[in-house]
Please model this.
Amino acid sequence: MFKRINIFWKLIVTFMVIIVITMMTMDIATNLVPPGISAVLAGVIIAVAFAFGSAWFFTTYFVKKPVEKLANGMNRLAEKEFEFRLDERGTDEFSSLASSFNDMADMLTSSLTELDKTRDYLHGILESSADIIITVTPSGNIRTFNTGSENALGYRRRDVIGKPVTKLFLNPQDREVAIAKLRFTDNVVNFKTKFLTKSGETRNVLLTLSRLRNSTGEIIGTIGISKDITEELRLQKQWMQSERFVAIGQVFTGIQHSMKNMLNACTGGAYMVRTGLKKDDRKMLEEGWQIVQEGITRMTDMSMNMLKYVKEWKPRFDQVDLNKTLSGIDQVIGRSAKERGIRFSLKDVPELPHISCDAQMIHSAVMDIVSNALDACFWKEYGEVEIPEVTMSAYTDNDRQEAIIEIRDNGCGMTEDIIAHIFTPFFSTKSKAGTGLGLSITSRMIDVHGGKIDVESEPDKGTVFRIVLPIDENSRSKEIIDGKKGFGSRR
Amino acid sequence: MAKKVLVVDDDENTVKFLTTALKENGYETLSALNGKDGLEKIRSEHPDLVVLDVMMPKKTGFVLFKQLRRDDEFKDLPVIMLTGVAEVLEGLDTQTEDDDVKPFDALREAMRKSIREMRDEGLIKPNMFIDKPIDPELVVARVKELIGS
Model:
């Protein structure tokens, strides 16, 4: 009960009790003291003694102890005993102080827990990252070194912390270069460099270096995050090598296929020459020799085409009227198509802007695609109703600033597998005629114009080839104009 | 009476030297330059054997061959097939459909698939294929094996 009362009232009550007791004491003392001693003096002495006693009791019990408890609490908190709390029973000022103390301790505990969590989280990120994450002091010494770094470089943390970071670089100057770049920017991204592992191996890395600043913006060092790309580079190299083998394989298979067809003529022709000689049959000998010569001619053509394919293509740009080019082809092809029973037509071509291109190359490219279209018709077995047909047309796409020459046939069409290979040198589906270089050369010719060839096809339905040429000369890169576009690049 | 051999190939030179070689060995010869004409000649002339090129316009050798095998009248007609890619036969049994040993060679892969299908249907006979460059004397020897002289 007493504890619930305010200190002020405790004081008043205590004071009144003291007065009452003093008066009673004085009264008793007056009666009890032996005669000769002043009863008043004795009363006063006893009362004063009692008052001091009471005051001592009061301060000890109500002030000193609670203050001590508070001080003890503070000490324990300071000694990181964060779960310590004060007894806050009562209503006096000390109780509310104790309660405030406990609130403060609660807040401190939760902030600390939060801080711990954040720290653990950040630490977790740092540690679980497979990347090499190293922080460095402004003087260039390693401050932190994560597990990713340990795994990649083979050093233990304790071996390197405090050591110069340059010792991790294969060429220590690399770090100077990266740091020099940091002068102009806060981040150096994907800087290619090489680290040296503890066992002396070289690791290729992409280093992203950033300045570390504190809350006031002061530079407190750098953080480097490096990605080990050694394995990636190795795989890439391996992949490129295997790609190269595949490409070489493709070319060899193609050449062998073409050669087989040419050798076929030579072998068969030679048989006839041999038999003609044996039988003294001049006609057979001549026919056989004719076949052998055709084989030789085709081999010569193929070797010329191979040279043509690898040469540096340099278009001679002129202002060309595509209408004129197409009607020229129409005249040349129209008759031979008719002889093969194929309807060939040039659709009414709208007024086209003159296009800067090499007229000769565009003519060859269109001719090649048209002759493929005619072959596709020739190869297809048409039904009763359908008529073999090839149409040429040209138009512009003004939005894209492109001129398009379209060659459409209703011939045998191609599967997706075939389409994927039509621009590959020596790939041919024609057993006799093709060298497999026609479309490869055509695509290079369009390529050096900064254009492209689009193909749509469906087996037994037909094929659409679109030669797309840029109208705007400025859209062409300088390499194209100089004819330096690299060998093998397409589209 | 001389046995009749039909040569179907879109390459006139091949037709020329093969018919010459067959005639030299006492066979009567016929020829066609595409699969469609070939089928018509088979129907009208009833040859004793057909030498068939695989890659041909209008109707490929495979298509024509399958048509013959499904036709009661011609299902036993001996056929020799000429291919530029006889090596597709190698590894026919060891390679599965999704095996991409030659991923770039769509044509060969397609042919391998056709041959596999034909084999599964029991249409393929040993020594049926002759690879290019074609040796006319080898063709004659095969023809002799199949139908005699």
